[in-house]
Structure formats: structure tokens, C-alpha cells
Amino acid sequence: MTRINYEGFNPAKDPGVELLSMPRWELAPVKEPLLAAEVLPPGTEVTMSCFASSEGFETTIRLTRRIIEHGHRVTPHLPARSIGSSNHLAELLSALKESNVTNIFVVAGNAKKQVGPYGGAFDIMEMVAAAGFTIGIAAYPEGHPYLSAAEAIDLLRHKQRYASYLVTQTCFDHRLLRDWLMKCRQHGVYLPVHIGVAGVVQRKELFRMAAWMGVGNSMKFIKRQHKLSARLVTPGAYNATSLLNGLLDCVYDNNLGRVGLHLNTFNQVKKTYDWWKGYVSSIDLGIESNPSD
Q1: DSSP state of 165
Q2: For 182, which of 24, 91, 176, 195 is 20 to 30 Å away at the CA?
Q3: The pTM is what?
Q4: How does 68-83 read in b/e, with b if 16+ C-beta sit within 10 Å?
Q5: At what angle do helices 86-98 and 122-130 cross, to 10 degrees?
Q6: Domain 12-278 listed as CATH 3.20.20.220
Q7: Cα–Cα distance measured from residue 88 to residue 256, given in angstroms and rounded to the nearest whole number
Q8: Are strands 165-168 and 45-48 parallel, antiparallel or unpaired?
């Protein structure tokens, strides 16, 4: 297997290296995530989704523990709307602490019915921070499902009190991302941003997951881009090369602050990893790919 040699990177010297050199890899607690994680080099930053309504918190915690044992750094999702009480939250945080988790991605979650006292991510952030965890939060370049653009940015500003970084919803339009990021910076949101990008995914799966995540504007963008639409007609043909080419131009703008990459793999890690290695080796960012058995 070819593994990426991270040694010697200086992201401060080249923001393109920061964007590409150490992406975060998101896995879901379905479709054999443990096998998917084995593709990645030890020390990789992995995030684990939480389907609390169907799979339960226990599944996410168990998988998080196992992947940490494989040598990865794991950030589990914690959906506030699925937490039953403050005692339940304390139990979850204790279990995550015992699993050697240090970083939690706090979200409202997709639960149709609020289970306990927490209606959104902000409601649990103080308790998560007090327990000693680093906190990541979600952002919506295409628009928050329930808030206006101004309200969504205002909420991000408030969450900065506890959060250390934010991760965007998956997007396919680098111009939209740039405009949104500029607005965030202009309105006082200064957290480092990890851009959510779809990995190498089957067309049917991509559209299904996009609908589930609410990225309708990106789907409209795709349909307007005839070349991209044609690539999506072929199963497994989509990759984020064009999007990353556009984002490389963005990350050299000092006004936009720190930008990183968050790969939504839908557990298609091997295909996404192979594509990413090829992309990295095709551009000159000082990233070296070393073969190993």
C-alpha cells in the first residue's frame, strides 16, 4: 500500500499544504467502518458519524474505541437532540473520555423528535467544553435548514465561545464556498474551517446522501454544469478534483483565514484514498508519497 508521508510539512509556509496534507476522513457507523479505517495510515484524523435514532450512541462509541485502538485519532459526532438528559450527556462524555477521545463534533442531529432538554448543539457545548473536550461545530454554506443567513452566522459567532473549528456541509461549488467564507470573516467568525467535500462515491449514493444532508443548492449547481453532470452519469465517476482546484485558489487569500479539508467518504475510503493520493501527487505542494508494504 502507498501511504502519504506527512513528515516535514509546514502548513504555515504553504496553505495549499494545509488544505490537502492532513484531511479529516469521515466514516459512518454502517457498512464496515472498521475495514474502511484500516486503509488509512496510523495517526489519521477520523470522524465518526452518529446515527443515534437507528444505530444508537453505543455503536458510535464502540466503533470510536476500536478505531482509536487501530492508531487513529477519532472525533465522534454528538447529536444534542438525541440526548435524553443532563445525566445521559454526562454518561456519554464519561464513556468517550474513557475511550481516549479528546475531540467531539457537536451537532443538533437529524432526530425528528427532540428526546430530552437539548434542542440544538449550543445547548450542550458548555458541558462538553467543561469536561475538557475540544469542540467542532457544523456550518452551512448553502444555508441553514431553519435559520436565515444572518441568523446562522450570528449563531456561529456565539458558538465560538466554546468551539475550536467548524466543518462545512458537503458542497460542490467553490465560488459559493469562497463567498460564504468571506461573509463569515467579515462578520466576526474567525474559527479555522474544514471544507466538507464528497469523496469518490457512486452517483446514486451521492445524490441520495446529498438529499439526506440537504445540499439541494449543490445539486442544482451540478445539474447546471454539463461536464460534471456527465461524469456523474457513470457509476463511481465523481471525484472532487475540480472543486479542490478551485479551493486552492481560495486558500491563498489571507483574508479567509485557515482552511482545511474534510472528506465525506460514505465509507468508500479505499477509492477516495487512492484518488486523493493521485491528486496530491499531481500537484507540487511538497507532499511526498512513499510506497510501503
Answers
A1: E
A2: 24
A3: 0.83
A4: beeebbbbbbbbbbbb
A5: 50
A6: yes
A7: 38
A8: unpaired
Residue 237 has a pLDDT of 54
CB atoms under 10 Å from CB of 198, counted, come to 25
Q: What is the pLDDT of residue 225?
A: 41
- The domains of the chain are located at 12-278
Cell 466554546 sits on residue: 162
Locate the DSSP E strands across 9-142.
24-27, 45-48, 73-79, 103-107, 134-139
Cα(155)–Cα(157) distance, integer angstroms: 5
**pLDDT the model gives residue 280:** 82
In DSSP terms, which residues pair with 106 in a beta bridge? 78, 137
Q: Supply 26's cell numbers.
A: 469521515
Q: Tell me, what's the pLDDT at 160?
A: 95
Cell of 135: 469542540
pLDDT along the chain (293 residues), means of 10: 36 58 85 86 92 80 94 96 96 98 94 92 98 97 86 96 94 88 94 90 64 47 44 58 82 79 89 88 58 36
Q: 105: which strand partners?
A: 77, 136
